[in-house]
Amino acid sequence: MNQQPAVFVCFIWRLRPLRKDPERGALSLMIVALAVGLVAVAGIVVDGGAKLTAGQNAAAVAQEAARAGATTVNVSDAYSAGVYVVDQQRAMQAARAYLVKAGLHHFSVAAAGSRAIRVTVTITKPTKFLALIGIGTFTCTGVATATLVTGVAGGT
Predict the structure, then answer these.
(1) Domain total in the chain
(2) pTM
(3) How far is CA 79 from the centre of its chain?
(4) Other CB atoms closer than 10 Å to residue 15's CB: what's the count?
(5) Per the domain annotation, does 67 fall within a domain?
(6) Of the four listed, 19, 21, 113, 144, which is most buried by Cβ atoms within 10 Å?
(7) 145: which residues sit within 8 A by CB, 6+ positions away?
(8) Is residue 113 one of the residues assigned to a domain?
């Protein structure tokens, strides 16, 4: 009589289906999702910082090139009539020479009136992390205008 209940319990234990944990593997899925999110945030931080830096560099180079061009005074007008204007041909040549020496190839230089020069610089840089989602490059444009300003004339 003592042996029958043990056989019965053993039989019931075998009839019971093997239960699997319904949450098994959920942690792995969460880690994958968090890793993707972390890479996305890193991409925004690294590539976003690089874009800000490239934008600042484009603006700085455009300003320097415009200054280099605006310092070329038309000497004949200055001596003959006392009028200080930018020698537009020399100014544009000076700005272009500065930009070429800086290693840039995408720019435009134009006269902005008789006393100013306008420079537009475009810089394209490759991305590091965002290339993983299909964004391979970003473009930044810097625009600057430099105006020839004369000093105070006369005085006592």
Answers:
(1) 1
(2) 0.69
(3) 46
(4) 7
(5) yes
(6) 144
(7) 66, 112, 116, 117, 118, 119
(8) yes
Neighbours of 90 (CB within 10 A): 15
Rounded to whole angstroms, the Cα distance separating 15 from 2 reads: 21
Which residue matches tokens 């041909």? Answer: 89
Q: How distant, in Å, are the alpha carbons of 6, 15, 41, 136 from that of 10?
A: 6, 9, 55, 64
Residue 29 located in a structural domain: no
pLDDT in tens, the chain (156 residues): 555 555 545 555 555 555 566 666 667 778 888 988 888 888 889 999 999 999 999 999 999 999 988 888 777 777 777 777 778 888 899 999 999 999 999 999 998 888 888 999 999 999 998 888 888 999 999 999 988 777 655 555
Total number of residues shown for the chain: 156
Nearest to 63 by CA among 123, 133, 134, 118: 118
Asked, for residue 90, whether it belongs to a domain, the answer is yes
